[in-house]
Design goal:
The protein is built from 17 helices and 20 strands. By secondary structure, the chain is of the alpha+beta class. It has a 20-stranded antiparallel sheet, sandwiched between helices. Strand 9 and strand 10 form a beta hairpin. Helix 1 packs antiparallel against helix 2. The longest helix is centred in the first third of the chain and has 31 residues. The two termini are about 45 Å apart.
């Protein structure tokens, strides 16, 4: 197991970091010289080496050196230097001359020797396209000769016409196997068996990923001119994580990344053999409820019809995805919208039952970060429809049962209903008789009617901002306009996140983001916002996209 982890540190982590930095470099390249980067219009060629039982494969379909020219912070150069420092390899001299336009990394098997007694040892395969086979062979020979000089015991074998080189490494070194296959690829793996299986997959096409019906369906869904593509076999990914999903709706996932004049668009498609139901009628334009969300919002979620959200395939997908990624059905969105979750807990209400059930029209949910406190302010806007009036009356009743008073006040000539709580505060009196008391009113929430919408807020300041800055809504925000323009119509609505305003909040709620930021430092330094949406009309797939808006784009 130790040598497997050692290989991951040498090859897998390096390849993943290369993909992350390369994606980060897309921004600089596109902003300054879009004509120099040509994306591939074909599928990853290295898929022929990968088993159709592989849980995951990711491919960069462009030469990373094309991203180098305008890498201001020289992150690619630093990565290349650090990645090969221990091996004594010079990237520019030994790799750059032959490296082609594809880098593919795959988890080929969950357990190389299929022996559960010695633990799970995944197989990893790195395929590098070569444009000069002879030079790439020289590189493989050079790499292993340097490892031999460092104390590794080399083994050479001919397997079905391919020369395989591997080492029986010392404990402190990395186990590595390598080969040049045909005229097209250099392969590296963490075990010679992985290379032998890769060669078998080429010579027996029914074994490789390209013969998988799921992969064939998925690859057709990728965006054209993709710069990077990832394929996940979801049931096997779940098995790899040791999970038993309560419900397995989606079988596979394809992710592709393309450039956009305003940033980066990552599109993902989940495929299933079952008929799926859309959670709501697709929208042909942004919902009107967003007009009441101030431009200062750090997070805005909009769409229509929350009444059937719990039974929708979108919710089933979310539960499957979070269980796969986190090992449980933990709802990450509830982390991001923690203030609303706190309201649910404090009031003793059930959001799907007591609120979502009567929201059949448009809605918008927003968080407004506050620099002076850790908990942001919240806004909930609901379009008037059948059941809304009864729903509001039910909330008033719940508030009363929790000991809150319902009071009416006026802000800028607008009548507001407020849920308030009376508390007493004591302070020591100079008079010997004892302490004096004061009564304070604490607002737990407010709501009012504007036009055809009912608006709920967490506090007076937020309600005042909505009422007094009607011409400064998020819909008028140029950054928001650019972001939603990149998302196809019709769609199911948007999740819009202003990264510059919400970064601190997100890092507190999702700590793993800090690690991601370190890996993709150039990207996150230039990230301005991200927008998520789902769209598409196929009844056997769920398609969505994430648009990353970058500074100066």
């Amino acid at each position: 197991m130790n040598r497997q982890r050692s290989f991951i540190g040498f090859i897998v982590a390096g390849a993943i970091a290369l993909l992350v930095i390369a994606i980060a470099g897309f921004y600089w390249f596109f902003a300054k010289s879009p004509g120099n980067l040509i994306a591939s219009t074909s599928q990853p060629s290295a898929a022929i080496f990968v088993s159709k039982l592989s849980p995951a494969m990711v491919s960069l379909l462009a030469n990373p050196d094309r991203l180098q020219a305008l890498d201001r912070e020289e992150e690619l150069s630093k990565l290349k230097t650090s990645l090969f420092a221990k091996s004594g390899i010079d990237y520019k001299q030994d790799i750059q001359p032959w490296l082609g336009n594809e880098i593919t990394l795959a988890i080929t098997t969950l357990d190389i020797d299929r022996d559960p007694e010695n633990g799970q040892q995944p197989g990893y395969l790195l395929a590098l396209a070569t444009k000069q086979p002879e030079k790439s062979r020289e590189f493989v020979e050079l790499l292993f000769s340097k490892r031999a000089l460092a104390g590794a015991n080399l083994a050479v074998e001919q397997y079905k016409g391919v020369k395989l080189i591997s080492d029986n490494s010392q404990p402190e070194q990395d186990l590595l196997a390598g080969a040049v296959v045909g005229e097209g690829f250099v392969l590296f793996a963490n075990d010679p068996k992985v290379l032998r299986d890769a060669i078998n997959n080429v010579q027996a096409p029914d074994l490789n990923l390209t013969s998988s019906p799921e992969y064939q369906k998925a690859i057709k869904e990728r965006l054209k001119s993709s710069l990077a593509v990832a394929f996940l076999n979801l049931p096997i990914v779940a098995k790899w994580q040791g999970l038993e999903l309560p419900e397995q709706l989606y079988n596979s996932q394809i992710i592709s990344l393309v450039l956009n004049p305003k940033g980066l668009l990552t599109e993902t498609t989940f495929l299933t053999s079952s008929e799926i139901v859309s959670p709501s009628t697709p929208l042909s334009k942004p919902v009107g409820a967003l007009q009441y969300v101030p431009a200062s919002a750090g997070l805005a979620i909009s769409g229509s019809n929350l009444s059937n959200l719990g039974d929708s395939d979108l919710t089933k997908l979310w539960k499957q995805a979070t269980a796969t990624l986190y090992g449980s059905g933990e709802d990450v969105v509830s982390r991001l919208a923690k203030p609303l979750a706190d309201v649910q807990k404090g009031w003793g209400i059930n959001l799907p039952k007591d609120i979502f059930s009567w929201v059949q029209g448009e809605y918008a949910i927003a968080l407004l970060p506050d620099q002076e406190q850790t908990t942001p302010h919240w806004i909930f806007v609901v379009e008037k429809s059948e059941g809304v009036e009864q729903g509001v009356a039910r909330l008033d009743a719940i508030a009363s049962s929790n000991g809150l008073s319902i009071n009416t006040l006026t802000i800028d000539q607008q009548k507001i209903s407020a849920w308030t709580e009376l508390t007493t505060a004591t302070k020591k009196s100079d008079v010997k008789e004892g302490a004096s008391f004061s009564i304070e009113t604490k607002v737990q929430g407010l709501h009012t009617t504007l036009g055809n919408y009912e608006i709920f807020t967490s506090d007076l300041e937020t309600m005042d901002e909505i009422l007094t800055t009607k011409d400064n809504s998020i819909i008028d925000n140029p950054n928001f306009k650019d972001s939603i323009a990149a998302i196809p119509l019709p769609n199911q609505g948007y999740i819009y996140l202003d990264w510059t305003k919400s970064q601190n909040l997100l890092e507190r709620q999702v700590p793993i983001l800090k690690l991601v930021e370190v890996l993709g430092k150039p990207f996150f330094n230039n990230l301005r916002s991200l927008t998520v949406s789902s769209y598409g009309t196929d009844t056997r797939s769920l398609k969505g996209g994430v648009f990353f808006k970058l500074h100066n784009s």
